[in-house]
């Protein structure tokens, strides 16, 4: 069992090591163009984000444990409003940049960065939330130190959405001028997501075996890497939180990676101290694909949400 668990731990992290080596062969602009072309093709009907690629700049910054994170931003003339995009597990800044770029039409600058052990950022065990939340804090510190900021809107996808939801319950958002969040396909319980990941790597695992392996994985994080990946869960933090910025929760009933019921549960937990959250559960759409499959409705709802908060 221990040998199997060690190997699965390495696989979860190695996948991103391999992708980093591949992504390092390309400039961010080239990768963004590839994502842009793919999105245009999938949505069709003449869809075009109209990106001025000359405005895209690459940056890097250090996070709390001295790891270097890579980022990319798009400056919209003299705007002081920023979208900060948070990618999902095994994804990268280029993907979240393209997925969130539609908000630039409202005059926002767009900033996306790679979490640890993703894209061009330094290797480090992926924690699916705990250390990634710290990465977000340092990304927002970097943004506020280098630009004049009036307003920040966070938009997160899957793991990025989970990070957003954790961050929203901290006391950092006022300092960082975060006013709104858009949570696309989040999850609530880390153990359930780990079981889903494990089943994708080892098809022979049944539910009982997965539970045992997840328990062992958590022990590896705690004992070997000194990381408590269950630290300050959303349920625990929600019970003591008194104030947060509004969040628009988006999910699909067809999502088999993360459950739409998790978005509903977080929405209900927050309803005690936030009265202007929103939620939309689509009947159809794969994991983090509702922007593609319901583009016009998705875009209009998010625009409406963002416009109402000055």
Defining key terms:
310 residues; alpha/beta; eight-stranded mixed beta sheet; 44% helix
Number of strands: 8
User: What does the oligomeric state look like here?
Assistant: single chain
How many angstroms does the end-to-end distance come to? Answer: 54 Å
Summarize model confidence as the mean pLDDT.
Answer: 91
Q: Explain this structure to me?
A:
The protein has helices at 2-23, 28-43, 93-100, 130-146, 159-167, 190-201, 207-224, 234-240, 260-270, 290-293, 295-307, and strands at residues 56-62, 68-74, 81-86, 109-113, 151-157, 178-184, 247-252, 278-282. The chain is an alpha/beta fold and 310 residues long. The chain has a single domain, classed as Alpha/Beta hydrolase fold, catalytic domain (Rossmann fold, 3-Layer(aba) Sandwich), CATH 3.40.50.1820. The protein has an eight-stranded mixed beta sheet with strand order 1-2-4-3-5-6-7-8, with helices on both faces. α9 links the parallel β7 and β8 (278-282). α1 packs across α7 (207-224), α2 (28-43) packs across α3 and α4 (130-146) crosses α5. The longest helix is centred in the N-terminal third of the chain and has 22 residues, at 2-23. The model has no long low-confidence stretch (mean pLDDT 91). This is Hydrolase. GO terms for molecular function: hydrolase activity. Residues 82-225 form the AB hydrolase-1 domain.
């Amino acid at each position: 069992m221990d040998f199997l668990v060690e190997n699965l731990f390495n696989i979860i992290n190695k996948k991103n090591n391999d992708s980093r080596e591949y992504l390092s062969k390309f400039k961010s602009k080239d990768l963004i163009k590839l994502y842009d072309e793919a999105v245009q093709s999938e949505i069709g009907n003449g869809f075009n984000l109209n990106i001025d690629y000359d405005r895209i700049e690459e940056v890097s910054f250090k996070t709390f444990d001295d790891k270097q994170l890579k980022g990319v931003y798009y400056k919209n003339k003299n705007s002081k409003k920023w979208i900060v995009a948070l990618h999902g597990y095994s994804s990268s800044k280029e993907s979240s940049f393209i997925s969130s770029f539609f908000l630039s039409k409202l005059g926002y600058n767009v900033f996306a960065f790679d979490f640890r052990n993703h894209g061009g950022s330094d290797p480090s065990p992926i924690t699916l939330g705990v250390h990634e939340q710290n990465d977000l804090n340092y990304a927002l510190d970097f943004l506020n130190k280098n630009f004049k900021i009036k307003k920040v809107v966070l938009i997160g996808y899957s793991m990025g959405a989970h990070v957003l939801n954790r961050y929203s319950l901290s006391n950092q958002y006022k300092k960082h001028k975060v006013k709104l969040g858009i949570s696309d396909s989040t999850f609530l319980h880390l153990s359930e997501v780990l079981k889903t990941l494990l089943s994708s790597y080892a098809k022979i695992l049944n539910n009982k075996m997965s539970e045992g392996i997840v328990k062992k994985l958590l022990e590896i994080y705690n004992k070997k890497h000194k990381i408590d990946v269950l630290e300050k869960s959303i349920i625990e933090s929600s019970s003591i939180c008194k104030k947060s910025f509004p969040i628009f929760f988006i999910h699909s009933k067809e999502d088999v990676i993360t459950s739409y019921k998790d978005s509903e549960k977080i929405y209900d937990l927050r309803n005690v101290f936030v009265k202007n959250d929103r939620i939309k559960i689509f009947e159809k759409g794969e994991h983090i694909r509702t922007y593609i499959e319901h583009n016009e409705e998705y875009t209009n709802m998010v625009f409406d949400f963002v416009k109402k908060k000055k």
